[in-house]
Amino acid sequence: MTAADHSGCETTGGHGPHGGSKIVTAAQATLHCLTGCVIGEVAGLMIGVSIGLGVWATIGLATALAYLSGFTLGLVPVMRREGVTFWRALQLIWVGEVISIGVMEIAMNAADYAVGGMQAGSVFHWQFWLGVAVAVPAGFLAAWPINYWLLNRGLKKCH
Asked: What one-character-per-residue DSSP string does 52-82 give?
């Protein structure tokens, strides 16, 4: 089965589901994945900074929550659209999600750390939000070519 069989996005012939290019389809898939990652990432960063966790513990919490929210946003649409069980949907999306979210999280956490966002004393400090503002585009830019590659090989599903 190809990604188009279960995804609603075309990955062959050079065009996406609405006549767009593969690069546009990859950008759309990356934005969808980024949405889930940002929800978990920001929640984890806010919790970590608010309760005074160290940098590595904050990164671990943010990454775990990013995977949780990212997978949830990936699984639910596939389960609804395809009428499949949780486990079948997980089989369809897990490889692409693990890789995409992993690349996104590495880039986002590195960017946030580099500008000092996760070291801010409070979520009300401008530096915390600068970290988020730098991390989000970094995550997108890192994962976009990866998602392009995954879609072209049928390893990622559009949700």
From this structure: T--HHHHHHHHHHHHHHHHHHHHHHHHHHHH
